[in-house]
Design brief:
CATH superfamily of the largest domain: Trypsin-like serine proteases
Number of domains: 4
CATH topology of the largest domain: Thrombin, subunit H
Radius of gyration: 29 Å
CATH class of the largest domain: Mainly Beta
Number of strands: 26
Strand order of the largest sheet: 4-7-8-11-10-9
Shape: globular
Number of helices: 7
CATH architecture of the largest domain: Beta Barrel
Strand content: 35-45%
Structural class: alpha+beta
Length: 388
């Protein structure tokens, strides 16, 4: 037979929990705080002092417990600072003729953020790629045309220029100071319709790498669980000081092969990277990337076995630009570059990523296989020609 004292104890705890829920529903918000009061089976109109609470006969006294959750104003303050500087970017693409013979002008949309009173706006390259005409919709509802200043395809960044009075300007922050678990806010226009949507999350990790095309990874990305959807691309990820710490760029939903579906995997370009690239785009119209003047094929173990190559990883030079940096250094068609400055080229260290760690005019030492000979060849890097 069940002990009656234990039964009474469970009934008492049930009453306590019911009281807590009722207290929350009936206005726990008091003076900017949410207060849960756990009482001894009673819900008095006013909370008596702890010493006035007497246990019922035959029962064990249950102590009074109170829990206060402060309502933090940092998030709305940060959003009020940056929100007016966030724009919706509308890219009008080349006209297309439909199956029925009519002409349509397709468009796509993303987000962006104003970084200067002159009207410079940062967004993603993929938001404006192939656009024939670009418009931005400001937070105050105004629509104005924007010109493309420059892009960096490899960093997925673009800078636009709009003419007119800007409603606000966002401030750059220091992405190197971010720590996992730190609260961050994403602002953008998901699906192009829900303008200036605010989502809250944390920094899940830093220094992430995502392969965005074969042989090239976006490196150093910020991972966040703040909700990011199609249309958020190009919008700012901000800290609670109201500073840009990242430019939202992509999400991962899963493998795409019928595997598990992932949620909360959003990625942003760190602000320190975005700021350096943006400043060059504004000044020059392009970002100076290092350049070897070669065409190449990435070597994999499978490719090496199939063709009997002497290296499992590296790049096979299939073409050398006459009078380019590689040509001047003495590299030849058929050479295999296996390392740059001692760093082996492999799956985790793709050639292009390792090359992009250097600047134009840097002199780097390449490890090269030429037949059975192992060579060390120094190359002065050139500047990659501007796109187009």
């Amino acid at each position: 037979m069940e002990d009656h004292t234990a039964q009474r104890s469970r009934s008492r705890w049930a009453a306590i929990m019911a009281t807590a829920v009722l207290a929350a529903l009936l206005g726990g918000l008091t003076g900017g705080a949410l207060v849960f009061a756990f009482m001894d089976g009673r819900a008095p109109a006013a909370s008596p002092p702890a010493e006035a609470i007497e246990p019922s006969p035959g029962s064990t006294a249950i102590p009074q417990i109170s829990m206060t959750v402060e309502i933090d104003s940092a998030v709305p303050q940060a959003v009020s600072q940056v929100g007016p500087a966030v724009v919706t970017v509308v890219a009008h693409l080349p006209r297309q003729i439909t199956f029925f013979g009519t002409t349509i002008e397709p468009s796509s949309s993303g987000s962006g953020v104003i970084i200067s009173e002159d009207g410079y706006i940062v967004t993603n390259n993929h938001v404006v790629e192939n656009a024939q005409r670009i418009e931005v919709i400001l937070a105050d509802g105004r629509t104005m045309p924007a010109a493309l200043v420059g892009v960096d395809v490899y960093a997925d960044l673009a800078v636009l220029k709009a003419e007119g009075e800007m409603p606000a300007v966002a401030e750059w922050g220091n992405s190197d100071a971010l720590k996992p678990g730190e609260p961050v806010v994403a602002i953008g226009s998901p699906l192009g319709d829900f303008t200036n949507t605010v989502t809250l999350g944390v920094v899940s990790a830093t220094e992430r790498a995502i392969e965005v095309e074969e042989g090239f990874f976006l490196e150093g990305l910020i991972q966040t669980d703040a909700a990011i959807n199609q249309g958020n691309s190009g919008g700012p990820l901000i800290n609670l000081a109201g500073q840009i710490v990242g430019i939202n760029t992509l999400i991962v939903r899963g493998s795409g092969q019928g595997g598990a579906v992932a949620e909360g995997l959003g990625f942003a370009i760190p602000s320190n990277t975005a700021r350096v690239i943006t400043e060059q785009l504004v000044a020059n119209g392009y970002f100076a990337r290092p350049y070897l003047g070669i065409r190449w094929v990435a070597i994999t173990p499978t490719l090496a076995r199939r063709y009997g190559l002497p290296a499992q990883h590296g790049i096979y030079i299939s073409y050398i630009q006459p009078r380019g940096p590689a040509d001047r250094a003495g590299l030849k068609r058929g050479d295999i570059i296996t390392a740059i400055e001692g760093q082996p080229i492999d799956d985790q260290h793709p050639f292009r990523n390792e090359l992009f760690h250097y600047q134009p005019q840097d002199v780097v030492k390449l490890t090269v296989l030429r037949g059975e000979r192992h060579l060390k060849i120094e190359v002065r890097l050139g500047t990659m020609p501007p796109p187009g």
